[in-house]
Amino acid sequence: MEKHYGILSTASIVPRFVNAVRNSGEGDIVAIASRSLDKAQEKAAQLGIGRYYGSYQELMEDEQVNIIYVATINSEHYANCLMALEHGKHVICEKPFALKKQQAETLFRLAQERQLFIMEAQKVVFLPVMAAIKARLQAGKLGKVHLIDLTSSCEATYNNWLSSLEAGGGCLYGNASYSIQMLAWLFDRMPVYRAGTAIKAEGGADVQCVINLTVGDDTLVVSKISTRVNAINKAFIYGELGYIEIADYWKAREAIIRYYNGETEVLSFPCQYELTYEVEHIHQCLDQGLLTSPIMSERMTVNTTEMLENIHNRWCE
Predict the structure, then answer these.
(1) Low-confidence residues of the chain, pLDDT below 70?
(2) Where, residue-wise, is CATH 3.30.360.10 in the chain?
(3) Burial 135-151 (b: 16+ CB within 10 A, else e)
(4) 10 Å Cβ neighbour count for 227?
(5) For a Cys staple, 223 with which of 45, 71, 90, 179, CB 3.0–4.6 Å?
(6) Across-strand partners of 222?
(7) Are residues 207 and 156 in contact, defined by beta-carbon separation less than 8 angstroms?
(8) 99-125 burial by CB neighbour count: b if 16+ within 10 A, else e?
(9) Are 203 and 195 spatial neighbours (Cβ–Cβ below 8 Å)?
(10) In what order do the strands lie in the sheet containing 264-268?
(11) What is the pLDDT of residue 316?
(12) Which stretches within 48-91 are classed as H helix?
């Protein structure tokens, strides 16, 4: 099928998605919209997009656009996706897909009713290095995995709304889905939340958090997220026979496996735009007439949304 994208937002991630679509060799970016016509015009000029709109409604009414990419602030994802589906558009929504489980379920149900494709844009599960890691875990190269240590950080000023609770900001909604969904995909089961704590800034948004999870019976996971410090952003997966080290795991091009017998294995997958793999999968799904992704599935999105909502509610009590 023809793939004509409309970009809903001028957010910082938009250029990377646009470049990924173009790098995929399929699909085109035909329009971009913002609530500010000036911002839309500026971003369109920067990215070489032919049409720009000063309202989301105008983008929805563009008859050439058949796929909407939603990259607005977290609190607006649900309303924006709903609007796109109601206008008969396929939907790709940046993570987190929604802030409430009920919202996620509503969007998938409506997409099914309208026979439209919908997917949460989660790049980590499509990275080739993650596929290589999964293959080695399934082959027992590390033996039993007992401990997983995840660290991610970014500056709160990266996006001003990250410090706003009302906007759906904070570490949890901003970054935790990377860890949760990566684990769910690598081990073919959802991790289970056990405990956690957060440091909040003025306004209520969490600026640092630690989440303790388990995968299966005896694999312990510690996920640390911060917008206060520039931490060493790595994932470590420790098994009986060795461990895997993954720098910037949510966008990784490389992983190093250090076996306890002294051997080392480097998994390297250089690429310019890491979102390309996600986009290629989207195009495959559309060509096959699928309504949901078999990898970034409805179940994974709904389960993750439910977990994040429950953790958030605990921290806000």
Answers:
(1) 156-167, 317
(2) 128-273
(3) ebbeeebbeebeebebb
(4) 27
(5) 179
(6) 149, 212
(7) yes
(8) bebebbbbbbebbeeeebbbbbbbbbb
(9) no
(10) 192-200, 206-215, 219-226, 145-153, 234-239, 242-247, 254-259, 264-268
(11) 75
(12) 56-60, 77-86
SS3 28: strand
Q: How many CB atoms lie within 10 A of CB 229?
A: 10
Hey, which residues does 267 pair with through a beta bridge?
255
Query: In CATH, what number does 4-121 get?
Result: 3.40.50.720
Residues in the chain: 317
H/E element, 52: strand 51-53
List, in sequence order, the alpha helices (H) in the chain.
14-24, 37-47, 56-60, 77-86, 101-114, 128-138, 171-187, 276-287, 298-315
Q: Tell me, what's the pLDDT at 161?
A: 60
Q: Give the pLDDT confidence score for residue 252 in this predicted structure.
A: 97
**H helix and E strand count, the chain:** 9, 14
Pairing of the two strands 28-33 and 4-8: parallel
Q: CA-CA distance, 241 to 257, in Å (whole number)?
A: 10
Take residue 190 and report the two structure tokens written for it.
């959802």
Cα dihedral: 308, 310, 315, 317 (round 10):
150
Distance CA 104, CA 179 (A): 19
Q: Nearest 5 degrees, angle CA 285-CA 11-CA 209? A: 90
Domain boundaries 128-273, CATH class? alpha beta
* pLDDT on residue 204: 77
CA pair distance 54, 212, nearest whole angstrom: 43
Res 200: pLDDT: 87
CA distance 211 to 263: 32
Contacts of 145 (CB under 8 A, 6+ apart): 137, 187, 215, 219, 237, 238, 239
For residue 294, say if its preceding peptide bond is cis, omega within 30 degrees of 0.
Answer: no
Q: For residue 205, what pLDDT is reported? A: 84
The ranges of the chain annotated as CATH 3.40.50.720 are 4-121
